[in-house]
Amino acid sequence: MITWTKAPDFKPSEFSENPDKFADPRLIYNLQDYRNLLGKKVYPSPVPGALARSDKVSQHYYNLEADIKSRAGDVFVEGCTAEAWQIAVTSQLWGGVGLYLNTLFKNQKWLMLHLDLRALGKNHSKKTVLLWIRDKKGQYRYPQYEKGGMKYLFKTLRKISSG
Question: Global pTM?
Fold first, then answer.
């Protein structure tokens, strides 16, 4: 069970699924730590499946019978998304950080972050945070593993940091 006094900036009702039932408590505590580092509001995505889903290959996966709870959340942040991404990647709170360029929140275009608790090196070959970007066409890019990927990443971060 989640001790909500450890995550005072979040309420269970903000999440797309019931976090007390579906989320690993550490996910919620790390979201609070992330929000503290960021110094800005972090909004859980209201889209169904943003916290928990039955897809076995997803970090959002849950199986209540096997006591497996979601280890991922999709969030929107106030302020500069490039800064929020950088803090997520360097915070040591997350093993996977995704940047989504084709999402909506509060009825407007708003970039989204996927944050998860995967172990470093899980589902990829290096002991680093797994990074990806879902572009405006819905295509996934893995900059640390693609030729020219880091150039694409820096170009994207530069673009989103300037508005």
Answer: 0.95
